[in-house]
Write a sequence for this structure.
């Protein structure tokens, strides 16, 4: 088999993973075409410019630019500097463990912040309501039930915040270790 056929066979084999990455990137809130860009970049050892990506994937430059921005927003693609090049160069995150930690911690922190703020606002409004002297007993029971739910959900969000911290500090890996890299 000549070199050209070997390179084609390599690309065909890599495309199995590129397609699976494209199919599952919806977990990260991006479209399959953006996932295909990430999968393609995953197999590139060196950085690539927008024009190189555009040519490799057959997408328009505006679409490619949008896809790169989407990947940068979820921290799986970084702009890098390459000596002698005036074009922006990009490299993808190769470490899936880091990708998972960065993305999900960011999303979980957002969830905690938004929901704890809502719980605090709701609790304040319920406290104002329950302090009314002529409060109907049925309404009081519903408020008490709501307080109970808020208390339980608040426990969850504090637990989720602790989980994020355990990922960020690496403590989680004492319980669920990252497998050692094979020395090949």
């Amino acid at each position: 088999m000549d070199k050209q056929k070997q390179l084609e066979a390599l690309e065909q084999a890599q495309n199995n993973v590129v397609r699976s990455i494209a199919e599952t990137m919806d977990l990260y809130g991006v479209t399959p075409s953006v996932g295909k860009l990430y999968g393609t970049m995953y197999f590139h050892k060196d950085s690539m410019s927008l024009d190189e990506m555009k040519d490799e994937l057959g997408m328009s430059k505006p679409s490619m630019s949008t896809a790169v921005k989407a990947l940068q927003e979820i921290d799986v693609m970084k702009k890098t500097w390459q000596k002698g090049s005036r074009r922006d160069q990009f490299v993808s995150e190769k470490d899936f463990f880091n990708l998972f930690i960065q993305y999900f911690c960011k999303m979980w922190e957002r969830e905690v912040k938004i929901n704890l703020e809502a719980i605090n606002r709701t609790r304040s409004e319920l406290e104002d309501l329950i302090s009314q002297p002529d409060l109907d007993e049925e309404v009081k029971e519903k408020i008490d039930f709501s307080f109970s739910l808020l208390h339980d959900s608040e426990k969850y969000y504090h637990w989720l915040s602790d989980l994020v911290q355990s990922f960020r500090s690496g403590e989680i890996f004492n319980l669920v270790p990252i497998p050692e890299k094979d020395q090949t």
